[in-house]
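Researcher: I'm preparing a figure for a lab meeting and need a structural model of a single chain. I don't have an experimental structure, so a prediction will have to do for now. The sequence is pasted below. Please return the structure as tokens so I can convert it later.
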Amino acid sequence: MGIRGNLFARLLTQNPYAELVAFSEINSQVSEKASRTWKVKAYSRFEDMLEKEDLDAVIITTPDFAHYKPVMRSLERGLHIMVEKPFTQSLEEAETMFKKSIEVGSKCLVAFENRWNPAVVQAKNQIERGEIGNILTFNGLLSNQVFVPTQMLSWASRSTCGWFLLSHLLDLVYFLSGKFPESVYATGSKRFLKSLGVDTYDYIHVVVKYKDGSDGIFESVWCLPNSFPNVFDFKLSIYGDKGFLHINSAHQMLDLAAGSYRYPSSLVVDYGHKLIGFPGFMLDDFIDSIRLDREPLASFKDGLLNTRLLAAVHRSLESGKEEVIMGGDS
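Model: Understood. Here is the structure written out token by token.
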């Protein structure tokens, strides 16, 4: 029940087809606060919650490295699942979770929330209309202020800006183009954050080659200065043989200059009685996939492909060589 857990708890209370009935949180202070806020049963062990509550679906918001056990236990009980991205940091775990989801037949969504970002949706519409023709190449970045790995995430040393950020960016390229990655070459460095006591990559640069012969260059940096106007910087350029698209989601149509210069969010807006924005669009779509019996927009298969690609990125960081994507487009 950290940032994301409380976000989705609030969004659940806004949906007319869903009811928040319980949550699990291992930190007792956090649990007590969340229990007062949401007025539902709290459990210290997710296993007990799954055993004792009459549930239809679960939302898993554990850290990047801790998705496997709650996903598998939930699938064993036949529950529908929404799980945070990245799907998992382990290729073996990803394969197992995907196969189990097929066996059980649950509706399973990986929270690649930018698939519901209005700018991305419009870009996909333009691509499908043929506005930019055949896609030739991509150039993208998704980065965070140093605040994120040093203060916001207590577990940053157990993840990377690759798992935490590139997972979004690389999924978007697949979502927008349908191109399957074939191989990757990645470079990165562990210096600045390590000097601050966080043993992870300061940045990761990636070249992805796709099966149709096209490629893309992507980067994530986890040490933007905290003076940057937004906690994240997100830009994606898509070049076609007839045109060009550029997404800039960091600047959200609003500038504020007061104690500091910043871009307040206009894509996720708190109206007091209701939170409006693409995380809510995603959650509503997950619930609709259950009640209307349709496939989620970002499935476990998409999560598996994303993990295969990111696993190759991290192998390349270690080997210093180009690495082939394991599993291909199967």
